[in-house]
Structure formats: structure tokens, C-alpha cells
Design goal:
single chain; 498 residues; mainly alpha; 11 strands; 9% strand; elongated; disordered N terminus; RNA-binding
Length: 498
RNA sequence: GGCCCGUUCGUCUAGCGGUUUAGGACACCGCCCUCUCAAGGCGGAGGUCACCGGUUCGAAUCCGGUACGGGCUACCA
């Protein structure tokens, strides 16, 4: 593929990428994916990852949102080399603190003949737009104020007439082209781009101005961002041309849609990263899933951890088409990470979940680590979400259990005779086990005779005992459960049903 | 309206002119394992590669058009 003549070759410069969220809400899935791609690309290329807060919209930007975005990134395990908290040589990293650099950029643009004042009022503009659109042409600004002489312009400004600064696109400018890492060669006819506003009448910069000025100032080499910015790219390239600054590489990521192919919204489920943490997802699972939503390592590998991402991520395998978010696959991935997790770590997470559910104390792991490490493999294998843990293991932490509806209907009430016999036999067997030998191995050996003794198939013979111990027809393995519950509690629960 | 972009199993994707009877993963179905539930093993179903036309000895792959979907078209980002 040939390099576009317009795109400055940045291969020689060290890679510098940035994630520049505007804090108008919490970090949503699309933003998180963009952050992951930027971060992984920086790590894989040995470059720098910069976090910049694009807070030029005073109406909607809040400190709470900034804090939330930062904590969401930290939770995901994304670290930045420069940005809020960390600082860096190209700061400040908040656009609201970079006003001086926009003023300077505007001066450069003026000096180069790339900017002019526009005194058209919003009302006039809206009317013009209306007419232009009705005629069927482009609805952009008609350039009415371009012809104002410097004297006229200055005079009107001095007189206190409000104005904005617009970019003055050269009349003879050809098509604006760039080579997008995802979309390939992309070209926009010059006349499809109007003299857009750079600086508002209140002196604040617009996004298309501030963002690219910052990118240039921060020596960004690759702009990796959402697809919704493709149409903004030629505008920003024009600003760079007016500034005489190098043009970075671009990579525009497709959007993330809901399972139904429509724009992802609350209706589909959670859209904010924080919510996934609350719902029991692991950051590594979300990162893996998001990374694969629009990118592939080799087309075969599905489980890709952060380390692999940090070494193998590239811009060559990014999909063009929008992806639908599949909660089921994410959940599966989560269960994979849960199962592969170090037992110690799982145990700690488990205790945390239990403590949060009010079932144990936060330091309970320290009180009986062996007990928890015995429990861990039984639970981790069955957990899809961290929030599954408390309900699954609850029976081990409460004093007594109440058989649930299914247990009553499908077991207790279905064959009371069998239930009674099974429980009685089980009680005898268990009472005969020496308290010192109360472990899965001995229990299992002793219980092996139960089906024969009660004259029922194993699945039917053990079910009453399961209901007695766990209060449900579905539970962790029986013998292990009894070991963990302890001899006294186990026998007490059997007695309670007799 | 204008300008851009996209379209491969239900979903995420591999595929860059012959190696493809289109590969993998999730979900789904069946069997095995089994004290329940999981996990695991084995197997299965599922795609006329949006449509139409062209280029070519040969196209999911290249070109054009159509349809559908999306983005931008703000003194939002």
C-alpha cells in the first residue's frame, strides 16, 4: 500500500498516542476500547501513552466525571505515561488549562493567513443553512465574512461586535486525503468542508481546533479514536497545514453497537465500565473482550491477556465494520479468567464478595486460609460472575438453611419415604465418622454405600441430603460441602429435616 | 439534501485472485463423564460471503451500481 503524499511520515518519530475523553459522562464501553487500543499500541511499539482530558465543554464537564474516568482506567489496568496525576513534559493535560496554547495557535494561523473573524450571527447562519440545504447543496458556511478587509474586521471587533474565528481554507485547495490505518486511503473534496469555527465568540476553542492543536503540541504520532471523527479529520488536517505542523497517522475505530445492531444504550445493559465492576466482571475479562471486539490477533485466539496485548497489538487487524456487543461472550470470558485465576487471588476476591454480602468478616481469609483454599476450586469452577459467589456459598455461612421451593416440590414432597430413609441412613453413616476424620475422603468412602442402603439410584439417594445441607437441589459437591460445613452443622441440618 | 464509511454462520471474527467442501470462538443441539450444578471430552447443526452487473481461465477476495445500516454536516465533543 502506498503512503499518502499528504500524510507526513512519522515513522522516524517515537510513537506517542493519546486517549482524550471529554468528561461529559463516565467511561463507556466504546471509550474504554479506544483507550485499550491506544494503550496497547503504545506498549507494543515501545511508545508513550498519554491521557488528556478534553474538557472544553464547560456545560457538561465535571470533576466527578474526570475522577470516574480515571478510576475506571485504573481498574482496567491501563496505565499512562503522561497525563493527570502523573504529569509529564507536555502538560498541562487538561484542555481548560491550555488556553494560552490555543491563543498562540490562532495567532500563527492568522499570521499565515489561515483565519478570519466572522461576524455572522447564529440566527443568520441558521437561516443560510436552511436555504442551502433546501437547494440541495452542502450546508456549510458560505464564507460571507472572508472578504472583509483586515481594517473592516478590526474596526468591527473594536466596536465591540461579537465574532468568532473561522479557518480560512485556501480557495484552490485540492482534496484532503489521508491514509487511515483502518479505512485505508480516505479522501474528502475540499469544497465539502466549510470554514468552520475555531474560536467561539467567548474566546474558547472548539473541539476541532483544540484537539488537533494539542495533538500537535504533544507530538502525537498516531491518532486512534472513534469512527465518528472521520469526517472531522480533514478539518483537523487543514488546521495542521495552516499551522505548518506535521500530520499524524490516523486510525478510526468502528462503533460498538448493542446486541440488536442498534446504537449501544442503557436499554441493552450496562454501558459504563464502572457498572461492569459492580456486576462481578473482572477487568482482565472486559479488557480481553473489548480488545477482541474489532481486532484480532490471528483469527483463532480468543483468550488474550494484557501481556499479550502489550506485545502483540497492532493496527493492521482492526475491523472496519461496527461490532455488536455480546454480553454472553463477555460473561463466558469472565468465567474463563475466573477459573484460570491463582487460587489465592480467587480466595481473596471470594472473601471480599462474601464480606460485602454480610456473610463473613473482611479478614476471614486470614482466620482460616486453608478452609478457603479448599473451597476455592469448588467455587471458581462454577463462577461466571463474582456476584455468583455469595448465593452459591451462602449455605456454608448461615446457621440454618430453608429448603427452597424446587427442593420442596421436587424432592421433599415428591417421595417423603425415600427422603426419610436416605436421611436416616446418612445420619447413621456420618455419625460413625470420627470427628478427626471429618474430611471429604472419609465422608466419600463412608457415603458410597448410601444408594444401595436406601435402594435408590445415586442421583435420587443423594438428593435429600443435598437439600438438607444446602437447602437446594443445586449445590457445590456434597461430600466437599459437608466437610466444609463441619460435622456438627451437617448433622444438625439432617436432623432438622427428620 | 450533501460528504464519507461499512455489509462473511444468530454474535465476534479469519480470509487480502486459485492452498476454501469458507477456518476459529461464543451461543445452540446430541452423546460421554457424573451425587446436583458446573467444568471437561467427543460429535453436530448453522454462511447462496447483502444484492446486481463487470474484469478474469478462475472472485468472499478487484471494479461499478443498487439496497440496507452508520458517521459527519453546531459558536457539542
Amino acid at each position: 500500500m502506498s503512503t499518502d503524499p499528504v500524510t507526513t511520515d512519522t515513522a522516524a518519530r517515537p510513537v506517542r498516542v493519546r486517549f482524550a475523553p471529554s468528561p461529559t459522562g463516565s467511561l463507556h464501553l466504546g471509550g474504554a476500547r479506544t483507550a485499550i487500543y491506544n494503550w496497547a499500541f503504545a506498549r507494543a511499539t515501545g511508545g508513550s501513552f498519554i491521557l488528556r482530558i478534553d474538557d472544553t465543554d464547560p456545560e457538561r464537564s465535571t470533576p466527578e466525571n474526570i475522577a470516574q474516568i480515571i478510576s475506571a482506567l485504573e481498574w482496567l489496568g491501563i496505565d499512562w505515561d503522561e497525563g493527570p496525576v502523573r504529569g509529564g513534559d507536555y502538560g498541562p493535560y487538561f484542555q481548560t488549562e491550555r488556553a494560552a496554547s490555543y491563543v498562540q495557535a490562532l495567532e500563527t494561523l492568522q499570521a499565515n493567513g489561515w483565519a478570519y473573524r466572522c461576524f455572522c450571527t447564529p440566527v443568520e447562519l441558521a437561516a443560510k443553512r436552511e436555504i442551502a440545504r433546501a437547494k440541495g447543496g452542502s450546508a456549510g458556511y458560505d464564507g460571507a465574512c472572508r472578504t472583509l478587509s483586515e481594517e473592516q474586521s478590526q474596526a468591527r471587533a473594536n466596536a465591540g461586535e461579537p465574532f468568532v474565528w473561522r479557518l480560512k481554507i485556501p480557495v484552490d485547495h485540492g482534496a484532503i486525503a489521508f491514509n487511515d490505518a483502518v479505512c485505508g486511503h480516505t479522501e474528502f473534496p475540499a469544497d465539502s468542508i466549510d470554514d468552520f469555527v475555531l474560536v467561539r465568540s467567548d474566546g474558547s476553542p472548539t473541539y476541532n481546533f483544540a484537539s488537533i492543536v494539542d495533538d500537535a503540541a504533544m507530538a502525537i504520532t498516531h491518532v486512534i479514536r472513534g469512527n465518528d471523527h472521520v469526517s472531522n479529520t480533514p478539518k483537523q488536517i487543514l488546521v495542521l497545514e495552516g499551522l505548518g505542523a506535521p500530520i499524524p497517522n490516523f486510525a478510526h475505530l468502528s462503533m460498538i453497537n448493542g446486541p440488536d445492531g442498534k446504537k449501544l444504550s442503557k436499554r441493552h445493559g450496562s454501558t459504563g465500565v464502572e457498572e461492569y465492576a459492580d456486576e462481578g466482571y473482572l477487568p482482565e475479562a472486559l479488557m480481553n473482550y473489548l480488545a477482541l471486539l474489532g481486532w484480532s490477533l490471528d483469527g483463532e485466539t480468543t483468550l488474550i491477556d494484557a501481556d499479550t496485548l502489550k506485545t502483540h497489538f497492532n493496527l493492521e487487524h482492526i475491523a472496519k465494520r461496527p461490532a455488536n456487543f455480546d454480553f454472553t461472550k463477555l460473561t463466558w470470558m469472565n468465567s474463563e479468567y475466573l477459573r484460570a485465576m491463582e487460587p489465592e487471588r480467587f480466595a481473596h476476591l471470594m472473601v471480599e464478595c462474601l464480606a460485602r454480602a454480610g456473610l463473613v468478616a473482611y479478614d476471614d481469609f486470614e482466620q482460616r486460609p486453608d478452609w478457603y483454599l479448599t473451597l476455592t476450586p469448588l467455587v471458581s469452577e462454577r463462577t461466571k460472575l463474582l456476584t455468583d459467589i455469595a448465593p452459591m456459598t451462602r449455605f456454608l455461612f448461615v446457621d440454618t438453611v430453608e429448603p427452597d421451593e424446587t427442593a420442596r416440590k421436587k424432592v421433599l414432597e415428591k417421595d417423603p419415604t425415600l427422603v426419610e430413609r436416605a436421611l436416616q441412613v446418612a445420619q447413621e453413616i456420618l455419625e460413625n465418622i470420627d470427628p478427626e476424620n471429618w474430611d471429604t475422603e472419609h465422608i466419600e468412602a463412608a457415603m458410597a454405600d448410601l444408594p444401595d442402603s436406601v435402594g435408590a439410584k445415586p442421583r435420587l439417594a443423594y438428593q435429600p441430603l443435598r437439600v438438607a445441607v444446602a437447602g437446594s437441589t443445586v449445590s457445590l459437591p456434597l461430600n466437599e460441602s459437608m466437610e466444609l460445613l463441619g460435622r456438627e452443622k451437617t448433622l444438625a441440618r439432617i436432623r432438622a429435616l427428620l
